[in-house]
Write a structure and sequence with these properties.
The complex is a heterodimer of chains A (365) and B (196).
Chain A (H helix, E strand, L loop, with lengths): L9 E4 L4 E2 L5 E2 L3 E7 L9 E5 L26 E2 L4 E2 L4 E5 L14 E2 L4 E2 L9 H15 L4 E6 L1 H12 L4 E7 L7 H15 L16 H15 L2 H7 L17 H14 L4 H13 L2 H5 L2 H5 L5 E7 L7 H13 L4 E6 L7 H4 L1 H13 L1
Parallel strand pairs in A: 5-8, 5-11, 6-7, 11-12, 12-13, 13-14
Antiparallel strand pairs in A: 1-4, 2-3, 4-8, 9-10
Helix pairs in contact in A: 1-2, 3-4, 3-7, 4-6
Chain B lengths: L1 H9 L5 E5 L5 H10 L2 E6 L2 H9 L4 E3 L14 E7 L8 H11 E9 L4 H10 L23 H10 L3 E9 L2 E4 L4 H7 L2 E7 L1
Parallel strand pairs in B: 1-2, 1-4, 2-3, 4-5
Antiparallel strand pairs in B: 5-8, 6-7, 6-8
Classes of the chains: A alpha/beta (365), B alpha/beta (196).
Chain lengths: 365, 196
């Protein structure tokens, strides 16, 4: 075993308020971020990693020697990995609205001295990028590659559209330019589960019991959308945990998996953040904003690599292709690969070997 | 490879190309290096796509038989279909799509009426194999083999204009029209520029 590389999450405080899409201003924003590798003098070897719904700034390496698990995309970031830290300056920050160090609904509202809860303004993907831009400027980045999977892909897409001068390459993985009606429906069920929890208390639960049951049901719904029929069949089939219990407890392996995922999630995530972030995903729609996807991409100045997974129905190949087609129509440099996988949407965190090959080739080219 | 050389010579500088079935991108790379073309390749095989990406080319993984509907009419100077026509499921559809999306199309294929191929079948009584056609009948991707005469007939029926024709034999090339029957007999491989 190679030695664990230890990293620390750093914090950056914005020195000005940010005007949000909802027209409200948010001040005292703090951003949690990590960096790996060194920025070169020209400031043009940066890669900004954009995380998905519930991840954080800790994308690679370990926080301590005893840490069992590395950062969430450690398979892809490091020496001689797809995002080679010998060559690139890799940055990952927690999104606005999150609960992993960056300002969100669980942060203290400076006006009241209490957590924002539902007083936190509704944020969008565009707002997340505005905050990241402040961090990027602070770090001295002049040109960069943006990369993200799932909701991270939406952020990468938005970066390429809103900052054509900064973004030279864009890698969008397991993503769509907007969530399908089916995706919104699942998010709605998840939010309903949280809001109807008896402990929700209109979001003001920080001093008492948290809406844990609601949040864990939301996570269970999420996990259904991250898998697919084939993946569920391969993982669990109709297997029982033990024997049929003849009551309404957890009987099947698949139930047990969802229970477990729900249970561990409540320890690491804030229910209000889940509401805000899923809403941001639901709202994101550059096709509507610019009239068409071709219009949205018109001023981009980036090479694009778009990767989809064959069994991902939450962000399907068909949806990914709408971006490819729009970019082709705009005469932009675009490459597209659909990877065969039986893992559903989860594939983007599992099938790292294939992604490494593709991304390395794309970055080399 | 000779046919790459010939195709590179046919393409004008700085043009926009669509390389259909671009494989690992060897021809496409030659075109970008020598003729400064821009454009995109389409390839179905994942490993080939990766190799083409490594060369710095833009490649879209896709199946030609599903059509080129993402490409608007006449959006390329050239659509290139090099040694791929005979392995498509629906060659008629693929050619029609090429003619729609590009001002000119370059199509090359091995000629099944080449004398060596004919002799193979005649004397051995077996499906012909050669350097150009190395597969067995049961595993060949070449499911729509054709001859020079077949292609002429195909174009005539559809009012497709043949702008240029180049015949390759034993690493030599000849252009223009010869007597059709002789051409059909002596050409190992053919390259046509067509448009509509």
């Amino acid at each position: 075993m190679e030695d664990k590389i230890i990293v620390k999450t750093k914090y950056f405080k914005l020195n000005k308020p940010i005007k949000l899409e909802c027209q409200k201003e948010l001040s005292d924003i703090e951003v949690a971020y990590e960096t790996y590798g060194e920025l070169n003098e020209a400031g043009d070897n940066a890669i900004l990693i954009l995380h998905a719904l519930t991840a954080d700034a800790h994308a690679a390496h370990y926080h301590s020697k005893d840490d069992k698990k590395p950062g969430w995309w450690d398979t892809m970031i490091g020496d001689n990995k797809a995002f080679d830290t010998k060559k690139y300056f890799v940055i990952c920050s927690n999104i606005l609205g999150g609960c992993k160090g960056t300002t969100g609904p669980s942060s203290i509202n400076p006006n009241t001295g209490k957590p924002y809860a539902l007083d936190f303004p509704v944020i969008t993907i565009e707002d997340m990028i505005k905050v990241q831009k402040e961090l990027i400027d602070f770090l001295g980045v002049k040109k960069m590659i943006v990369v993200g999977g799932s909701m991270g892909g939406m952020q990468a897409l938005e970066w390429s559209i809103s900052h054509p001068d900064l973004v030279k390459s864009t890698i969008i993985i397991a993503c769509a330019p907007r969530l399908s009606a089916q995706g919104i429906a699942f998010n709605a069920v998840a939010r309903n589960a949280i809001i109807s929890d008896k402990n929700f208390n209109n979001g003001n639960y920080y001093e008492g019991e948290h809406p844990e049951r609601g949040l864990s049901i939301a996570r269970m719904v999420g996990h259904i959308t991250y898998l697919c029929e084939e993946a569920m069949h391969n993982k669990f089939g109709r297997d029982f945990k033990d024997k049929p219990s003849f009551d309404f407890g957890v009987d099947f392996q698949v139930e047990s998996y969802l229970e477990y995922q729900g249970r561990i999630f409540v320890d690491r995530f804030d229910a209000n953040s889940y509401l805000y972030i899923t809403k941001a995903v639901d709202y994101y729609d550059p096709t509507k904003k610019y009239g068409s996807l071709e219009n949205a991409f018109k001023n981009t100045n980036s090479r694009f690599l778009i990767i989809s997974f064959s069994s991902d129905w939450l962000f399907s190949t068909e949806q990914a292709k709408t971006m490819v087609n729009a970019l082709v129509k705009d005469n932009k440099e675009v490459s597209f690969v659909e990877l065969k996988s039986a893992c559903g949407h989860d594939a983007f965190l599992i099938e790292w070997e294939k992604q490494t090959k593709i991304i390395e080739s794309f970055l080399k080219g | 490879m000779l046919n790459y050389r010939v195709i590179v010579d046919l393409v004008e500088e700085n043009s926009k190309i669509l390389d259909l079935g671009c494989g690992s991108g060897a021809l496409f790379k030659m075109l970008t290096d020598e003729k400064k073309v821009k454009g995109v390749g389409v390839e179905i095989d994942e490993n080939c796509v990766i190799e083409a990406l490594e060369k710095g080319l833009s490649v879209i993984q896709g199946d030609l038989d599903e059509g080129l509907k993402q490409f608007p009419d006449k959006s390329f100077d050239y659509a290139i279909l090099n040694q791929t026509l005979q392995s498509t499921n629906n060659p008629e559809f693929v050619i029609e799509e090429m003619l729609r999306v590009a001002k000119q199309s370059i199509v090359s294929f091995p000629n099944f009426a080449y004398w060596k191929v004919r002799f193979y079948l005649f004397f051995k009584g077996k499906m012909p194999k050669s350097k150009q056609l190395p597969y067995e009948w049961y595993n060949t991707p070449n499911i729509h083999l054709l001859t020079v005469n077949d292609f002429f007939e195909f174009c005539k029926k559809r009012d497709i204009k043949i702008e240029k024709s180049i015949y390759l034999t034993r690493r030599k090339k000849r252009s223009g029209f010869l007597i059709k029957t002789i051409t059909n007999f002596f050409s190992e491989e053919v390259i046509f520029i067509i448009k509509k």
